[in-house]
Amino acid sequence: MAQVLLDLIELMSEAAQRIDTTCKQKNVAFPTLDGPLDNASEAIRRDAEVAASIDILAAAAQQIIATARAPTRTIFDSVYAFHTSSALRTAAAVNVAEVLRKSGPKGAHVDDIVEGTVVAPSKLARVLRLLASQHIFTEVAPDVFANNRVSSVLDTGKDVAELRAYPEKRYDNTNGLPALIEHGLDTFYKAGPYMTETLTDPATAASDSPNEAPFSVALRTEDDFWTWLDRPENAPKLHRFGVAMQGAKSLVPEGYIAQGFDWNELPKDATVVDVGGGTGHVSMVLAKEFPHLKLVVQDRPMTIQHGIQYWQENMPEALASGRAELQGHDFFQPQPPRNPPPALYMLRFIVHDWADSYAARIMRVLRDAASPTTRLMIIERLVPYACDVDEGALGIPGAESTLVVPEPLLPNLGIVSLNCYFGDFQMLNAVNGQERTLLQFKNLFEMGGWKLDRVYRMPGFTAQLIGSPA
């Protein structure tokens, strides 16, 4: 009998039927892999029921493969998965997606793709065939490749001649995703292989110092990632990183910040301090949605200069009226005094950059500046366990996950939650930081002098964690 396979196939079939029903109701076709990425047709994936069904379908499909195939195949596919990253990096460097954009569905022969480069066409064919076998590009004829919906994500949207003539402008005026992809395939990709050495070396195994992370070991530098990135010789990588972060922000809808926590609970003229808030694009959402609030955006002085320009271009009246203030500040240093103290401090995707000892220092600085009624909001991903766990037992309102996972799927939906774990490894390898489970956040709040009072779970694995002074 192969009942587990039949059960998984049934889950997939039911999920596909739900997706089909929604598509018919909305009179839209579900996007296929054929052809380039079309953002308008991607809207159906953002439908809540469709998104939930996609998760079930993907989790079941992955589990079918792991169940049906020999264990050795699964292990060795994982062992050699790094070749896919290498192939992607090569495809990006050769501007394959941009070349194929112009050739359309008929594709282009590798001889034409490499024209003007030193790359051997026969070697590029092998690179692209590996990717096409994983549905990244399409091989339409022997050694002839075309873009598909997945490979189009690599496309900067620029002309190949422009990219070759002005490589320093490669990421300017793009959606940021190519920069995010190529940042991951360059700087952090090189750090990954050194994780084992860093974790098993007695000199670094127990360290939580940012400059003893695998990144620093791999690049043979005494700098942490942030210091290294600021070096003059790394200016192109710093620029790419800045654009990459804009791309990362585009993957999280800005409106999420207005959900969950009831911002209308805060009194008129209450001050919200967005600590490490970048240029303040999220605070701008709050300024528009909740005009009774005062917003203070804090970040490094260089970032704040860009932020002032951003606000002057998009919401100058908030700066002129004093409703919005942009302030250069190091979040490890004491907060500038305010009278009255802020109603809320917000740390949005900040503490994942730091190990507990450093993250608690940041939070302790905010606790020292807080009034008894000041609240702390941390917005981060909550890492799920790969086993069943009752997080409601923590006694924190909103802690219990609302995710209902049918058997025999993994409780974390397997492949669906991989992005959380990849992000966690990214933080570990780059800066000795980490994504955290809910229990780890509860402990971190206590280390920083706060009490975790409430959890607002957002779509995906993101959450607003609300604390009060302990």
UniProtKB/TrEMBL annotation:
Record keywords, A-Z: Methyltransferase, S-adenosyl-L-methionine, Transferase
Gene Ontology BP terms: methylation
GO molecular function, one term: O-methyltransferase activity
Chain ranges of the O-methyltransferase dimerisation domain: 79-154
Domain O-methyltransferase C-terminal: residue ranges: 241-449
Keyword Transferase in annotation: yes
Gene3D superfamilies the record matches: Vaccinia Virus protein VP39 (3.40.50.150), Winged helix-like DNA-binding domain superfamily/Winged helix DNA-binding domain (1.10.10.10)
PANTHER family per the UniProt record, alphabetical: O-METHYLTRANSFERASE CICE, PUTATIVE (AFU_ORTHOLOGUE AFUA_4G14580)-RELATED
Designated name of the protein: O-methyltransferase
